[in-house]
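Dear colleague,

Thank you for sharing your sequence with our group. We've completed the structure prediction you requested, and as agreed, I am returning the results in plain text so they can be pasted directly into your records. Please verify that the sequence below matches your submission; if there's any discrepancy, let me know and we will rerun it promptly.
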Amino acid sequence: MSDAVVPDLIERMLEAGFYPHGVREPVELIQTHVSYVLLTGEFAYKVKKSVNFGFLDYSTLEKREHFCRQELEMNKRGAPELYLEVLPISQDNGKFVLGGSGEAVEYVLKMRQFPQDVLLSEMFEHGRLTEAQMEELGRVVALYHANAQSSDLIRSFGEVAQVRQAIDENYEQTTKYIGGPQSQAQYDETKHYTDSFFDERSQLFSSRIQNNFIRECHGDLHLRNICLWQDKILLFDCIEFNEPFRFVDVMYDVAFTVMDLQARQCPEFGNAFLNTYVEQTGDWEGLQVLPLYLSRQAYVRAKVTSFLLDDPGVPAQVKEEAKATAADYYKLAWEYTKPHQGRLILMSGLSGSGKSTTAKHLARKLDAIVIRSDAVRKHLGGIALSERGGDELYTPEMTQKTYDRLLQLGVMLASQGFTVILDAKYDRTDLRMNAIDMADFQQIPLQIIHCNAPIEVLKERLQQRRGDIADATADLLESQIAASDAFTPAEQPYVRSLDTSQPIAAQLTKI
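Please find the predicted structure tokens below.
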């Protein structure tokens, strides 16, 4: 269908009589640079424009049909309730007919319409988004990635040359904005970081491929493409038109959401989402590539916003706003490349002493990664986090393996600039001293936060615990007390004690 005919079709689709069902008048039209979306009340209809941007090609009827069907199938992964069917549009005596039996002149994607105020972006803007919902999003995205396809072809997109090509292209397309929203120094330093990352860390990319973390992902996972509809989080509008944009490391998707929240000045929500995701997947090693993808996603937002500065149809005031927005994203992309001093925080205390609650509170304030021994133990044992572990999960050998893995992950991430909280009992001197010695050897600052509360409080907490991955019960407290080692003089300088039966915020501020 020619560009001249498309507006004729859209004019017809704005009429209530075009549809075989009742509509809410007037039919509303939303137009983007690649599609027309018509809102009828119960249903939304998307018509792809006849455009070719190189990375996106809808220039023929055959391609538009193909990508309509591709969009339908791919979005059923994250939002099956929203994506319904692809319908042909034919012409009968010069009139456009939806779902007609004649020769198709266009194709349309039919979707369930939902109110805009259920978008996570809208919920955030109106103060209705919660930390608990961000934790649930972490679980939803973890399951989405667990079910995502992979193959030799898909994994090949994780090779350095493939990843680097897309990032280098961003730099090439934004040199014209240096001296405008982008500074020369920021440009040079951001590019130097990614160049060095690719040159020095090729083995990291190889391990991501070998461990099957390159999958058919969403590709555009920001808050405007996530909604909470009918009490369920749905991921929609994934990238259907370009394989390199969706055959990516799972951390590429995760980074988009985290970056979006940090750009909105809400790192606490990003931290809640990220920690839940990595705990569910056990992919703490993937955090090593996170800074690269955080910078990439911020840079892409800067680039796309910068393009508005070249559009003669954009009003001057809008261009000024776009310039400021682009500048903020360029700065954020640069900030992600800056080195940070990592550190380790060991939680210590009996079951029910408030270690995990305190660790979560600290993580939100420090933007720290929390690694819980309960999660590490179950990942090592190959059981779901929600499943109760048997005796084989709590042998001395498995406990040692769990603490070894905890420390290995903590040192790896802290040495790369993360603040890492290891959430475990750390009730034995040898376990604590092993961490202290390793941190000292790696020149990583370390602190031990010892949580305690009256025994009656511990028992009550454990008896009331519901829906947590920890398996400990109140009857284990006596044996835990008997097996715990007091802090030695060598450990005391690292230890700060916390009475979790009292408000913890003020105590943590002093720490």
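Summary note from our side: Residues 1-5 have pLDDT under 50 and may be disordered.

Kind regards,
the structure core
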